[in-house]
Amino acid sequence: MQIFEYNGSALVAMVGKNCFAIASDRRLGVQLQTIATDFQKIYKIHGRLFIGLAGLATDAQTLYQRLIFRHKLYQLREERDMKPETFASLVSAILYEKRFGPYFCQPVIAGLGKDDKPFICTMDSIGAKELAEDFVVGGTASESLYGACESMYKPDMKPEELFETISQALLSSVDRDCLSGWGGHVIVVTPDDITERTLKGRMD
Predict the structure, then answer these.
(1) pLDDT by residue (tens digit) across 69-83?
(2) Which keywords does the record carry (predicted)?
(3) What CATH number is attached to the domain comprising 116?
(4) Residue 65 counted as domain residue
(5) What is the pLDDT, as a whole number, of residue 118?
(6) Among the listed residues 110, 108, 132, the one whose alpha carbon sits nearest the alpha carbon of residue 60
(7) What is the mean pLDDT of the chain?
(8) Entry pTM
(9) What CA dihedral angle connects 64, 73, 133 and 21, to 10 degrees?
(10) Three-state secondary structure of the chain
């Protein structure tokens, strides 16, 4: 078993019309044994920017602490929040500088940039960025997430439709992956507000 599969995870971010959604499963496991069913995998950087961290849970928490520290330094120096594109470059640089002993994490970044344009991207454990206009996925359930998102996604969705689409894609994908599951956690972000919901899924 790969170290990336040790805890199991499913992450997806999807773009709508002037909004985005990011979702994760809630399972923390040690291989096939479930440890917790309410584990946080999506972290808030500021009101318009979120990061999901798939992979080894301990590395994800360490990396998040470093990112929050760097973002707070940026806020003090620049007196403004970081743009999603700038934050993606920061994450990439932090991962690449540790490339000989990497954080075993696969980040999924989602944010609202200039003119409320949604930005999503993912990268591998050494910071190679992959930008997308529609959706990005990560974690052990990424293969089935790709299939579900390909079939369900359509451009310029409103927030409610986006929530429904990302929720159905997540729930149908984690059913096909034994290392992730136990419901879901979905955050939909528009220029005006943040909606956070918990999904109930199969509990086996």
Answers:
(1) 999 999 999 999 999
(2) Cytoplasm, Nucleus, Proteasome
(3) 3.60.20.10
(4) yes
(5) 94
(6) 108
(7) 92
(8) 0.91
(9) 50
(10) CCHHHCCCCEEEEEECCCCEEEEEECCEEECCEEEECCCCCEEEEECCEEEEEEECHHHHHHHHHHHHHHHHHHHHHHCCCCCHHHHHHHHHHHHHHCCCCCCCEEEEEEEECHHHCEEEEEECCCCCEEEECCEEEEECCHHHHHHHHHHHCCCCCCHHHHHHHHHHHHHHHHCCCCCCCCCEEEEEECCCCEEEEEECCCCC
- Is residue 140 assigned to a domain? yes
Q: What is the pLDDT of residues 29-63, one digit of tens each?
A: 898 888 988 999 999 999 899 999 999 999 999 99
Residue 1 above 80 pLDDT?
no
Indicate the number of domains in the chain: 1
Residue 204 lies in a domain: no
pLDDT value, residue 31:
86
Q: Which two tokens stand for residue 31?
A: 């291989």
pLDDT bracket for residue 162 (50, 70, 90): very high
Spatial CA neighbour of 184 closest among 193, 169, 194: 169
Beta bridge partners of 179: none
Q: Which domain covers residue 54, as residue numbers?
A: 3-199
| 195 within a domain of the structure (yes/no) | yes
